[in-house]
Amino acid sequence: MKTTLIQDACIVNEGQMFQGSVLIEGERIVRIYKGDDTPSLSVMESLDNLVDARGKYLSPGLIDTHVHFRDPGLTHKADMTSESKAAIAGGVTSFRAMPNTQPQTTTLKAWQDKMDYAASH
Length: 121
Prior knowledge:
This protein is an alpha/beta fold. The protein has three helices and seven strands.
């Protein structure tokens, strides 16, 4: 299992902002170090990857509840591919798409059809 430390970031989490580091084992965050609390020498020696995040912000994935994926029907404005790439670049990991498409995605069936359409393009 790979161990990564993201060090000296400005961490934004649960309504707080503080200087700190995040220790990750595999795909799981195992510890958040705040301020003067720093990893031990043994932790530092066991790292596979050290990321210097000085001057950078680190936050959990963001949720966008007002997304305009225009598939199907209005892809001349935007499409799921272009808009999801933009979301990822901005730190968005989850979304809720607006039902302003043709046909509107106002039922579970319409939503599933939209997801099937996106997966095939």
